[in-house]
Amino acid sequence: MAKVLLLSPLYIDIYGSLKSAAGRYFPLGIGYIASYLIKYGGHEVRLYEPEAQKLTIRDIKEIIKSFKPDIVGITCSTANFTRAIELAKLCRANSAAKIILGGVHVSAIPEFVMSENADCLDCVVVGEGEKTMLELVEAYQNNYGLESIKGIVYKKQNSIIRNENRPFIEDLDSIPFPARQLIPQHLFFPNMHNARYRNCSTILTSRGCPFNCSFCAARIISGTRYRMHSAEYVLEEMQMLKKDYKARQLLITDDTFTVNHSRLEKICKGMINKKLNLKWFCFAQVTTVNREILRLMKKAGCYSIGFGLESSNKDILKQMGKPISPAKSKETIKIANQLGLKTQAFYIIGSLGETKAQMEHTIKFSREVNSTMAFYNMLVPFPGTRDFNLFFSSVPLKNINWENFVAIGENCVLKNSKVSAHEIEKLLSKANIIYYANPQRFLNLLLHIRTFYEFSNYFLGGIALFKQLAKWSGGKVNPSDN
Fold first, then answer.
1. Residue 317 and residue 186: Cα distance in Å, rounded?
2. CA dihedral (174, 178, 181, 182) positive or negative
């Protein structure tokens, strides 16, 4: 039995002015790895999420020294990659453990990560981590070689070795529920715009996305084929979350929860028949829902749904690989609004070659769509995506400031777009102010509020948003166009 320490790096201050609107979420990725190591390896696992647990660097150092792990596994996204490396260096200085790094960022550029950080890393995991981590722990525990372990990159003598890719896990139900018992669940709470109840849990019911968006990095870990937990597995996990952790709300974090209607109907009808009375949010694509499905989802507790509409320009949508049309986006949002769902529409500004006029048209289009909430995001071309290759192919990886790669962040990272970064920031500031300054939309948003917790989060989140808007606009913005 090995002693395994799993960590995620600090991240919240990366959001800048918007950090007070951010939630704290259980780290599902390493949560699954923890439960897999416990169930199939019998290993002793400790799991920490320093942000939610308010752990300082000194605290983490003491944990490392007292636990004396044999293996340390660290996960990271692009924005907190630098923090993950700092964490790895801390582990290296205070233990004899083998240190493994995984997550979407390192899966996109594993050879670079390994070659630049061989002093503090023993191995990098590429893709899904459950089986790979189990094999790595057993190999290190028994002093086996790493040559036969799929899905890893490591340094051997003076060479960087990349082994064969690991096939994706086909039977997702073979993976036990994330090891939520390893961290007190009351420490986690939703972000501002999804906050209905304080007792909120995240849940992942599928992996892989059949769509091919140029900006999305999710497929780097989960692939392009849609793989699902069974409806029975999902319902059992939902019941457990309500019974054991007193959950009142779920955030379903699937890239697109609504792909398979047969499974979706089983889950919704199961939630109704079992009287779970859980409120939930999910992401969907406008082509994967209709009035009947949305009505069933609402009956099962869905109160809010997010759609990636991205642009009003057909050419931009085609360039993104987004198989939707502006007309379909309007139609779907209208139906969801009519059913009383809180609709969230997401737009991306700054695609390669996108003109200011096209950006302004998308912003105008968003007001015609009239979702309950609109989110205007600067394009962030994450490593491993087609957009990254378009924007950063000529930029040395070691020269990139990864901390700016935040999906909803302060700073535009686009350096060679048709419209300057500063102009994009000003456009987003104006877009938000015009959208929410409209009395009818503001009233509509208020009418969707059901709890004091929800109201207080909107209030605090609104303050954070307007601080950011002021920074982007460089002063006052005149919302001359409603």
1. 40
2. positive
Contact 184, 349 (CB under 8 A): no
Distances (CA, A) of 349 to 57, 123, 405: 37, 36, 15
Query: What CATH number corresponds to the domain at position 464?
Result: 3.80.30.20
Contact 272, 295 (CB under 8 A): no
Question: For the chain, how many helices (H) and strands (E)?
Answer: 18, 15
**Which two three-digit tokens encode residue 404?**
């700016």
Question: CA-CA distance, 148 to 128, in Å (whole number)?
Answer: 17
Check whether residue 408 and residue 461 sit in a common domain.
Answer: yes
CA-CA-CA-CA torsion sign (149, 150, 152, 155) = positive
Residues 301, 279 contacting (CB under 8 angstroms): yes
pLDDT in tens, 418-457: 888 888 888 988 899 899 989 999 899 889 988 998 888 8
pLDDT over 70 (residue 161): yes
Dump pLDDT digits (tens) for 329-380: 999 999 999 999 999 999 999 998 899 999 999 999 999 999 999 999 999 9
Rounded mean pLDDT of 119-147?
Answer: 96
d(CA 373, CA 342): 8
The whole domain housing 330 covers: 189-473
**282, β-bridge pairs:** 305
Q: Answer whether residue 167 is part of any domain.
A: no
Question: What whole-number distance in Å separates Cα of residue 466 and Cα of residue 379?
Answer: 20
340 and 466 share a domain? Answer: yes
What pLDDT, on a 0 to 100 scale, did the predictor assign at position 20? 67
What 3-state class would DSSP assign to 379? coil
Determine how many CB atoms are found less than 10 A away from the CB of residue 360.
Answer: 16
pLDDT at 476 over 50: no
